[in-house]
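Researcher: Next sequence.
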Amino acid sequence: MSIYGTCNLCNSDLIYSQAAEKFFGNFYNCSQCKKYAIEVNIENAIMDPRDDIAKYRSILAGYLLERRDRKNPISIRNQDDLDRIINDPSVPKTITEKKNKLLKYISLSGNIGEIVEVPFAAAYAENDSELMALIKDLEKKSYIKNYSDDGGYGAEITVEGIEYLESSSNINDSKNCFVAMWFSDLMESAFNNSIYPACGENGYLAQKINDTHFNGDIMEKIHSQINKCRFVIADLTGYRGGVYYEAGYARGLGKEVIFTCKEDWYNKLVLEEVDTYKNKKKVNSEKRFVEELREVHFDLSHMNTIMWVDELDLKKKLFERIQLTIGVGVK
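Model: Next structure:
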């Protein structure tokens, strides 16, 4: 394996580097951060300790490490992309959240009895002192065994650590997306060919209520799935009352909701072919066309809705919207 230098975010070896193709920046394949591209001025600012942006270096390294299993590179093309990552709900804001990130990394990287090498990015730590303080605190609680020395940082998960993680799951780390939609042949196909893969390629599992086996009240199950998901996709095609309700419930919880709608169902006057019957026995039917106004409810007409023409169009637009507004799912 050829080494192309050191990653400016995490200090690990670069497997590959070249100029970015679609903007003025650099593309890297880092042994730890994996594939990412970053705009030149932002990269220079992050490396300059005198610049305010430099404090975000540890956030970027942690964000990329958590998403190391992603299929597509993450691009930081401008200040908006940087702000989206910094303000992502999964980014730890407190010492407790950093400790949870660190403990989760150790748990995912090795089993009981296995020593795991711990990088700074695993805890979003800014320096040696912060990382060691977090490791020692987890050791004090018996969540890990500490094997750190002058050669680097190492730890082993304990039974107590695994039990703590199981009892304190973080919704911001959820990989689930709840999909509210019309249960028709049209939308079932769109779900399978567009919505599900667009979510999957960003690291999320798309779920809809008619794919779930359960006993009891369906509304309780819907509420439970929305409560636990990271975000919601609400497709307005067909104007189903349930979709409006589920989107409203999610927004009331503060969840991100991505609205989509097939173009010919969004505020369009269309000709609908219908059957008319000459008698009650439904014989001698006649075909005719009637005008039908397909109109999204005015409460949602101002939302930034993804308008899609076909399944390929929906997949492309939805993939980009998830990546730019929700972010890539954590491991």
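Model: The chain is about 35% helix and 20% strand. Residues 154 and 216 are 47 Å apart (CA to CA).
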